[in-house]
TrEMBL record:
It comes from Armatimonas rosea. Keywords: Hydrolase, Metal-binding. GO terms for molecular function: hydrolase activity, acting on carbon-nitrogen (but not peptide) bonds; metal ion binding. InterPro entries: Glyco_hydro/deAcase_b/a-brl (IPR011330), NODB_dom (IPR002509), Polysacc_deacetylase_ArnD (IPR050248). This is Peptidoglycan/xylan/chitin deacetylase (PgdA/CDA1 family). CDD domains: CE4_NodB_like_6s_7s.
Length: 245
């Protein structure tokens, strides 16, 4: 059950205020990278919350003072409302990652908006305000789905850097190696919540990214401080590849 203590609710609303205000100013419907001329990086964690394992990740992020963006699944959020609240209270940002985590091109087009709206309602019910960030499961969408994402008021947040941390046998050191390999200014790094090897890798790659002069930001900060929507043809090859897949 969500904590109904008035002081707790006040702190939660306060923590959410900056994100909500910043998101109001976002005018792009799709983001494939931050501004490549700025050493900013956004860590994103998809698919949770996953109970204790997401709790462990939040503890690591808090210790390192790294803000991140959590693209959460609606049905998982219902199971772990306290983790949704903790994400916000710890200064992270929430994103919508559908209700059921279906690959959107594989369900009827008429059900796509419902997948977004159900999660919007779940998150609003827990923390009191909706998010305007969205990421499609598997990064899979088409023009018609993109239109629905925009119509529902969301920014489709893709990524530039994908170490495929969910792959069987991925070790923390390999995740770090792959994150660093594809790191570019304006990075949006795709990771998953609830994977112990990813959580183990976080302190190492955070230190290495910071050593290169980067600052970590949430997705809406990245958009606000950068140009938002950029054209695929102007991007390095590996970015075009991920964004197009
Ligand atoms: Zn996912």
């Amino acid at each position: 059950m969500p904590n109904r203590d008035p002081e707790y609710r006040r702190l939660l609303a306060l923590a959410l205020q900056d994100d909500v205000e910043r998101q109001k100013g976002i005018r792009v419907s799709r983001v494939i990278t931050g501004d490549p001329s700025q050493r900013l990086a956004a860590l994103t964690f998809d698919d949770g919350p996953h109970g204790e394992k997401t709790g462990d990740l939040l503890t690591v992020l808090r210790r390192l003072r790294v803000p991140a963006t959590f693209f959460v699944v609606g049905k998982m959020s219902l199971r772990y409302p306290n983790l949704i609240e903790r994400i916000v209270l710890d200064g992270h940002e929430l994103g919508n990652h559908t209700y059921n985590h279906y690959r959107l091109p594989q369900i009827p087009l008429s059900e796509v908006a419902g997948e977004l709206n159900r999660t919007r309602d779940v998150l609003t019910g827990i923390v009191g305000a909706p998010t305007r960030l969205f990421r499609p499961p598997g990064g899979e969408y088409n023009d018609r789905i993109q239109k629905i994402i925009a119509q529902e008021g969301y920014t489709n947040m893709l990524w530039t850097d994908d170490p495929a941390d969910y792959k069987l046998g991925r070790t923390a050191s390999r995740i770090t190696e792959l994150v660093m390999r594809d790191l570019t200014p304006g990075a949006i790094i795709l990771l998953h919540s609830g994977l112990p090897e990813t959580t183990k890798a976080v302190p190492e790659f955070v230190a290495r990214i910071r050593a290169q002069g980067y600052t970590f930001v949430t997705c809406s900060e990245l958009i606000q401080r950068g140009n938002g929507l950029l054209h695929l043809q102007n991007l390095p090859a590996h970015i075009s590849r991920t964004a197009a897949s």
